[in-house]
């Protein structure tokens, strides 16, 4: 029996006792067996599901159906056909998209790990603002459009709450990409890195904002990123993110810079009294040297022998001193040089 | 020590009843069933824990989730297995999108049936392959079901595993899927869900296992990907750079390392130490030390460890999450 629920001074009757639902015959779930992970459903959830099934069975398009999908999805955000049904309801009922976004925002606080709600948000935003319509607008004009201003604000809040939320960052990439919001992105990313230099999601977004817009990487940008990354390494030498950012960026877009620029800069840092012990103690420094020398051996024939020897001695340091858990890997890598 | 009896009792208990807190996983119950069976299988305990009658009834429930053709056969895109019985009795759901299979559920159902010793004779192979074909996007990626913009390598993997188990690859454009996965390789050597996104151990697994099943592992720079994967380990594995270790990545990342030929390079003692920290005294394995166990972290944590110690646990196929004894008997799974 479903209990009457008192919530914040309001009495909520079970659906079966509400006039609005009198005409609906609830449709029960069929179970054919035991020992198949049955869930001990709460009574009110079970009742809502029985009514939702009854509506979905015939595909009823109504406000009460929309409300019921909210209630069910809040408790069971993986209910994939309820999402499909809801999308149809939102479309056919010409619901306020603003209200829909408010609901999705609430839901993402309740269920931050859910994939579906972020896709739903994309669909709603696209219904609100046709990506074609921003073509030809300047960046300032675009970010002034209320929908986009609000989405950027919503994302800033979400990422304040959970700075490494994988879905929020993916959604942000979708938004930047779909509406061409490239110019503001690097500034946002730099703030996130300043807040937490170990936030790898932000470092990844840095790569995205530099590369994904399609502009080529100029020598000035490479120089700037080298200097920027080095400053961040100084703040926390044993931090994998900046090391893998700069090695990855150069390896893909300016490989010669690895040995021409990065190498002298990090070896100088490793000899600097202030940073000497921290830099020499982190496996990321030595692992970076292995990558750099390997690239040099490949590119510069006259340096090949020397570079391989240097890579090999970096592997020795890793295997015997600063990366003992990966000892076997570094010995293997040494044989691959 | 690894407490075999406690873990077996844990998985059996989950098969018997899950608490209301798991309502949010109601639509993925098929995967919970699969994971509980995997947990038993890793101890070679399916026959010990389940009677013939139990197995028979479980097989019937799984087949009851297979979406049949509707009256005018207009639901071809919704065929396959559903995630559970919450969608209602097939015949009564007239609005077709409401009664819909899901690639992830189809994958879990087939694995669960194989684990239960079913012959797969009642699987409607043409219907599944036909629906699957409609779920591959222009990008090469897959959606789990129609009418969604959700698409990522989890569903490429499910499609590949289904094709492998059913021995029919005609529902997948392999070159397109491989090209999508290549775009998922990140600047740092990790692998993720789409171009330019952050490298992630779960998507690493989906991509590497898909390539292994498609026999196309050479399509990605394995040396760099292997290094990224090995760097995920402290004692336990994390799933992203600078995140805390989590028991399930012993599988997602550990299995990827296995498929890339890195078996001898992992720190087995570290893997074991972290598993012990996450093992509950009531059976099961939690995501992180001190939390409550759940079927996913329990099964995957244990399978991750099985790669380190195949002498203590059943040797498992890294590409299919099934015991090697079963994949070999069926000649499925990548050659590893």
Describe this structure in words.
The complex is a heterodimer of chains A (337) and B (336). Chain A is 67% helix and 2% strand. With 337 residues, chain A is mostly helical. Chain A is elongated and about 85 Å long. The termini of chain A are far apart. Chain B has 336 residues and is mostly helical. Chain B has a single domain, classed as Glycosyltransferase (Alpha/alpha barrel). In chain B, strands 1-2 form a two-stranded antiparallel sheet. The model of chain B has no long low-confidence stretch (mean pLDDT 96).
How much of the polypeptide of chain A forms β-strand, as a percent range?
under 5%
What would the principal axes of the Cα set say about the shape of chain A? elongated
Largest sheet entry of chain A: 2 strands, antiparallel
Could you state the oligomeric state of the chains shown? heterodimer
Main sheet characteristics of chain B: 2 strands, antiparallel
Low-confidence stretches of chain A: none
Helix content of chain B: 40-55%
Enzyme class (chain B): transferase
EC number (chain B): 2.5.1.59
Organism (chain B): Linderina macrospora
Keywords (chain B): Transferase
Task: Indicate the topology.
The complex is a heterodimer of chains A (337) and B (336).
Chain A: E1 5-7, E2 10-12, H1 43-58, H2 63-75, H3 80-92, H4 97-110, H5 116-128, H6 139-144, H7 146-161, H8 166-179, H9 185-195, H10 200-211, H11 219-235, H12 240-253, H13 256-271, H14 276-281, H15 283-299, H16 304-322, H17 327-336
Antiparallel strand pairs in A: 1-2
Helix pairs in contact in A: 1-2, 2-3, 4-5, 7-8, 9-10, 10-12, 11-12, 12-13, 12-15, 13-15, 15-16, 16-17
Chain B: H1 4-16, H2 29-41, H3 46-49, H4 52-64, E1 66-67, E2 80-81, H5 103-115, H6 125-135, H7 153-166, H8 174-183, H9 201-214, H10 222-230, H11 249-259, H12 268-278, H13 295-308, H14 324-330
Antiparallel strand pairs in B: 1-2
Helix pairs in contact in B: 1-2, 2-5, 2-13, 5-7, 7-9, 9-11, 11-13, 12-13
């Amino acid at each position: 029996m479903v209990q009457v629920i008192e919530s914040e001074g309001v009495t909520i009757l079970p659906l079966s006792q509400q006039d609005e639902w009198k005409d609906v015959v609830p449709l029960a779930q069929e179970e054919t067996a035991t020992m198949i992970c049955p869930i001990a459903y709460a009574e009110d959830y079970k009742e809502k599901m029985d009514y939702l099934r009854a509506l979905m069975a015939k595909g009823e398009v109504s406000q009460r159906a929309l409300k019921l999908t909210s209630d069910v999805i809040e408790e069971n955000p993986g209910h994939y056909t309820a999402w499909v049904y809801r999308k149809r309801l939102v479309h056919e009922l010409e619901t306020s998209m603003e209200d829909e976004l408010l609901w999705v925002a609430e839901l993402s606080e309740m269920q931050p790990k859910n994939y579906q709600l972020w896709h739903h948000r994309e669909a709603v935003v696209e219904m609100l603002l046709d990506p074609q319509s921003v073509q030809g607008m300047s960046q300032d004009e675009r970010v002034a459009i209320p929908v986009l201003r609000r989405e950027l604000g919503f994302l800033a809040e979400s990422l304040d709450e959970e700075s490494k939320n994988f879905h929020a960052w993916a959604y942000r990439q979708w938004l930047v990409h779909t509406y061409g919001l490239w110019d503001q992105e690097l500034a946002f990313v730099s703030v996130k890195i300043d807040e937490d230099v170990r936030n790898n999601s932000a470092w990844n977004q840095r790569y995205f904002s530099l590369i994904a817009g399609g502009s080529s990487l100029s020598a000035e940008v490479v120089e700037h990123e080298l200097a920027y990354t080095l400053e961040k390494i100084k703040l926390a030498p044993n931090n994998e993110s900046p090391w893998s950012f700069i090695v990855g960026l150069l390896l893909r877009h300016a490989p010669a810079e690895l040995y021409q620029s990065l190498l002298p800069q990090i070896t100088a840092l490793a000899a600097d009294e202030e940073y000497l012990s921290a830099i020499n103690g982190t496996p990321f420094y030595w692992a970076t040297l292995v990558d750099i020398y390997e690239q040099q051996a490949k590119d510069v024939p006259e340096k090949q022998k020397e570079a391989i020897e240097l890579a090999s001695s970096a592997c020795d340091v890793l295997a015997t001193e600063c990366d003992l858990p990966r000892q076997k890997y570094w010995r293997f890598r040494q044989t691959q040089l | 020590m690894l407490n075999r009896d406690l873990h077996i009792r844990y998985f059996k208990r989950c098969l018997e009843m899950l608490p209301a807190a798991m309502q949010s996983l109601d639509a993925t119950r098929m995967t919970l069933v699969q994971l509980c069976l995997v947990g038993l299988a890793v101890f070679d305990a399916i026959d010990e824990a389940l009677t013939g009658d139990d197995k028979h009834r479980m097989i019937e429930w799984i087949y009851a989730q297979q979406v049949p053709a509707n009256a005018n056969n207009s639901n071809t895109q919704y065929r396959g297995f559903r995630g559970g019985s919450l969608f209602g009795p097939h015949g009564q759901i007239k609005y077709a999108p409401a009664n819909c299979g899901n690639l992830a559920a189809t994958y879990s159902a087939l694995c669960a049936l194989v684990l239960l010793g079913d012959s797969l004779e009642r699987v409607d192979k043409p219907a599944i392959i036909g629906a699957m074909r409609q779920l591959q996007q222009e990008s090469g990626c897959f959606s789990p079901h129609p009418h969604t913009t959700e698409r990522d390598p989890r569903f490429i993997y499910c499609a590949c595993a289904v094709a492998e188990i059913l021995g029919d690859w005609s529902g997948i454009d392999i070159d397109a899927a491989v090209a999508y996965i290549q775009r998922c390789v990140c600047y740092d050597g990790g692998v993720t869900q789409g171009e330019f996104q952050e490298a992630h151990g779960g998507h690493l697994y989906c991509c590497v296992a898909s390539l292994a099943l498609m026999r196309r592992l050479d399509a990605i720079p394995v040396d760099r990907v292997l290094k990224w994967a090995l760097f995920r380990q402290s004692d336990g594995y994390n799933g992203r750079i600078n995140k805390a270790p989590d028991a399930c990545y012993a599988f997602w990342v550990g299995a990827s390392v296995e498929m890339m030929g890195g078996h001898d390079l992992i720190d087995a003692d570290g893997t074991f130490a972290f598993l012990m920290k996450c093992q509950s005294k009531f059976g099961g394995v939690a995501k992180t030390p001190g939390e409550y166990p759940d079927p996913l972290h329990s099964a995957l944590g244990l399978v991750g460890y099985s790669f380190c110690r195949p002498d203590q646990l059943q040797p498992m196929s890294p590409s299919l999450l099934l015991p090697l004894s079963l994949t070999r008997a069926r000649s499925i799974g990548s050659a590893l």
